[in-house]
Amino acid sequence: MGRGFDILSRKWSLDFDALDYDGDGLLSRADMEGLVESTRVAFGPEGDPVKFAEFRSASLRWWDRFLAPADGDRDGYVTRDEYVAAYREVDLATMSAALIAFVDAIFDFVDTDADGRIGIGEFAALQRAWNASREDAMTVFESLDVDGSGHLSRGELHMYVQQYYTSPDPDALGNNLNFRF
Ligand SMILES: [Ca+2]
Ligand SMILES: [Ca+2]
Ligand SMILES: [Ca+2]
User: Fold this and answer.
1) Low-confidence spans in the chain with pLDDT less than 50
2) 15, 27 Cβ separation under 8 angstroms
3) 128-145: string of b/e by CB count within 10 Å (b at 16+)?
4) What's the confidence (pLDDT) of residue 96?
5) Strand bridging mode 117-119 / 151-153
6) Cβ(86)–Cβ(69) under 8 Å?
7) The CATH classification of domain 2-175, taken from the options 1.10.238.10, 3.40.1000.20, 1.20.1250.20, 2.170.150.40
8) Where in the chain are the domains?
9) Is residue 64 helix, strand or coil?
10) Residue 26 CA, ligand 2 centroid: distance in Å
């Protein structure tokens, strides 16, 4: 196990914290449902109900396909060790292809003004739903918006998400997606 795996394991572990919505140190389908509901609330009337339904089903599909199987001892909860171990074993190319479909469902819901880009306000609302402070959300956004356009494109987000989950590079910009990094 090389240093690259250390960085990936650290990112997956931070991802675990982001997904543990109720903060009990375990992941369950209820955490995913809590995050989805929190996202709906964060966007309020701006959120499109049809896109929300797609985002919700993509989230639960993600849980059922990639997270539930990580529950090695089948007790209904995924521990941090189970979570990181599952990422170590999964085929990262297959996983990241499925992840992009999930990211697209998030993108479509979060892009409330439907201009095909994520603006800083849209990004901050999403981060708020995921328990980041406004300052953390701004720091993350500014680090990712390298050309300072005030927007993230779908392609940029795909690249950052793939870097976050699959790149062992400690300096990959996508590492900043999780404000805890
Ligand atoms: Ca939990
Ligand atoms: Ca378990
Ligand atoms: Ca937008």
Assistant:
1) 1
2) no
3) bbbebeeebbbebbebbb
4) 83
5) antiparallel
6) yes
7) 1.10.238.10
8) 2-175
9) helix
10) 8
| Ligand 1 mean position, distance from CA 114 (Å) | 32
- Between CA 6 and CA 158 the distance in angstroms is 23
Ligand nearest to the CA of 81: 2
Identify which ligand lies nearest to the alpha carbon of 69. Answer: 2
Q: How far is the first Cα of the chain from the last one, in angstroms, to the nearest whole number? A: 21
Residue 120's identity, in one-letter code, is I
Each as own residue / partner, the long-range contacts of residues 174-178 (CB below 8 Å, 24 or more positions apart, any chain) are 174/144, 175/7, 175/11, 176/139, 176/140, 176/143, 176/144, 177/140, 177/144, 178/11, 178/14, 178/15, 178/18
Task: Name the pTM for this structure.
Answer: 0.91
